[in-house]
Amino acid sequence: MTSAQSCNLYQQFETAFPADTSAVLLQTADGRVYSYADAQRESGRIANYLTTLGARTGDRVTVQVEKCPEVLWLYLACLRAGLVYHPLNTAYQSAELEYFLNDAKPTVVVCGGASAALLIPLAQGAGVARVLTLETDGSGSLMAGAAACPAQFDPVPCAPGDLAALLYSSGTTGRPKGIMLSHANLATNGRTLVKIWGFTSGDVLLHALPVFHVHGLFVATHCVLLSGARMHWLEKFDAGEVMAALPRCSVMMGVPTYYTRLLVEPGFGRDSCERMRLFISGSAPLLAETFAEFERRTGQRILERYGMTETGMNTSNPLQGERRAGTVGPPLPDVEVRVVDPQGTELSAGEAGDLQVRGPNVFQGYWRMPEKTREDFTADGFFNTGDKASISADGYVSIVGRAKDMIICGGLNVYPKEIEQILDELEGVKETAVIGVPHADFGEAVVAVIVPTADAALDQAGVIEFSRSLMANYKVPKRVFLVGELPRNAMGKVQKNLLRERYKDCCARADAHAD
Predict the structure, then answer these.
(1) Which residues, in sequence order, are CB contacts of 498 under 8 Å at separation 6+?
(2) Backbone angles phi, psi at 36, to 5 degrees
(3) Any idea what DSSP says for residue 362?
(4) What is the DSSP code (8-state) at residue 219?
(5) Helix (H) or strand (E) holding 253
(6) Residue among 199, 161, 184, 219 at smallest CA distance from 11
(7) C-alpha–C-alpha distance, residues 353 and 26, integer Å
(8) What is the 3-state secondary structure (H, E, C) of 272-312?
(9) Residue-wise pLDDT tens digits, 299-312
(10) Is residue 354 within 8 Å of 341, Cβ to Cβ?
(11) What is the spatial distance between Cα 160 and Cα 393, in angstroms, rounded to a whole number?
């Protein structure tokens, strides 16, 4: 394969770089500015350094570091060298890290200096050849070693199916699965998003997301790199810093929590967003109330989309056209979606069932799990997402729940999202999470965990009475718990597995009932 025929993702980025590579790519909150030329030079040096350490095409590079510009250079370096980038959540602890290192079997691990004492023995036990460090100020052994290397590095030719990245499922049920994403998976999805979201070289993306996850690493940065745009780079989400940056930006990507936190800020409104053309939300469901309040305060309708680690983005509300609250929009132009019953028969519009997707964005399979890969794909090539959804007659997809979150009460299916949407309408309810817990009689019982507003006068009896007036009896919560906040992961998703564990015994007896 010649370089001209290569599908290396880095080469595809370079073709979209500004003709003048001194153009700004990234600016940090503390005023540091980096150009496209900086990205080319530093990623070339790191690619040279990694190969001198023995990393070869297809080898994994495991990365657990805090967000900094150098992490982006490292990612680009791995693409250039044909290495497989393996990012890890910075919150992972010893047992989790040991599993990932032994499963991914990387050649090189890059970590923060404070984590080195923990990671070095784990890496040695997993047979990792080298552990390097990278700090948020750009110091550490990775950049020190790369500084002595030449900046010129010819990208390794890659076929469309060659792996670019290895990310792991959350592991909330069972063993975490390695998700193999190819250069073509990432490139096709990125180009589609640039087109449907209208990215141009004049855009400035407010980047406050973590970069160990699909949302921040692929969706956000790829839209910039494939359009020649630039980023305002925040190490983490801070409402004050975001408000200060918005007047200099045109697009923001975030999880719903970012938008609810902005709405708490008294100074946030139309003036804050005067230059913004687009707010995008994903990684967790956006409440219709948040959608409506954001529009009322800012005059902007948040664009909600749907994706997952295995596929990148699958659907999106339109840039031009109706952005429908409570839905994630129609499928992307090159993605097929369908909803089927347990037997695999496609359902009619509006019926809820198992969501399946097919397209060039869908991953290559699970790392070292061929049986699981076969299990999650249909004979005609659709991927079983594990999400429950319905599709309207005009093609808008609504996610009604995760398969693992579905509650089976007395043999009847209960979709948590449906109940949550009803409870969210109750005065005094700020946020809800509905889960299923063991019940001796019904198998599972519906339990509602509610975060009330500060001045709410809610109690369990009132919530249940309200529920009974609006839903079938088998859907009415058996128990209601009022809490200060819901547990979330780094991407803002409610961790229902933790709630199920916390309340697993609340309805265990056959005579369990609402107090």
Answers:
(1) 487
(2) -65, -35
(3) S
(4) I
(5) strand 251-254
(6) 184
(7) 42
(8) HHCCCCEEEECCCCCCHHHHHHHHHHHCCCCEEEEEECCCE
(9) 999 999 999 999 99
(10) yes
(11) 35
pLDDT tens per residue across all 515 residues of the chain: 665 578 999 999 999 999 999 999 999 999 999 999 999 999 999 999 999 999 999 999 999 999 999 999 999 999 999 999 999 988 888 888 999 999 999 999 999 999 999 999 999 999 999 999 999 999 999 999 999 999 999 999 999 999 999 999 854 345 789 999 999 999 999 999 999 999 999 999 999 999 999 999 999 999 999 999 999 999 999 999 999 999 999 999 999 889 999 999 999 999 999 999 999 999 888 888 899 999 999 999 999 999 999 999 999 999 999 999 999 999 999 999 999 999 999 999 999 999 999 999 999 999 999 999 999 999 999 999 999 999 999 999 999 987 778 888 877 878 898 899 899 999 999 999 999 999 877 889 999 999 999 888 899 999 999 999 888 888 899 999 999 999 998 888 899 999 999 999 999 764 444 33
**Tokens at residue 11, please?**
């080469």
The torsion angles phi and psi of 134, rounded to 5 degrees, stand at -150, 125
Under a CB-based contact definition with an 8 Å cutoff, are residues 166 and 84 in contact? yes
**Strand (E) or helix (H) holding 65:** none
Alpha carbon distance 486, 506 (integer Å): 18
pTM given for the model: 0.86
- 373: Cβ–Cβ under 8 A, 6 or more apart, which residues? 365, 366
Strands 251-254 and 204-207: parallel
Domains of the chain: 3-183 (3.40.50.12780), 237-402 (3.40.50.12780), 406-502 (3.30.300.30)
Helix and strand tally (H, E) in the chain? 16, 24
Phi, psi (rounded to 5 degrees) for 481: -120, 130
* Residue-wise pLDDT tens digits, 181-227: 999 999 999 999 999 999 999 999 999 999 999 999 999 999 999 99
Helix 183-196 vs helix 9-16: crossing angle, to nearest 10: 30
Identify which of 52, 53, 77, 80 has the alpha carbon closest to the alpha carbon of residue 63.
Answer: 77
| Residue with tokens 């009932």, as numbered in its chain | 513
Any idea what the Cα angle at residue 90 is, between residues 216 and 495, rounded to 5°? 75
Interatomic CA distance for residues 112 and 32, integer angstroms: 21
Number of C-beta neighbours around residue 163 at 10 A: 22
The three-class DSSP label of residue 56 is: coil
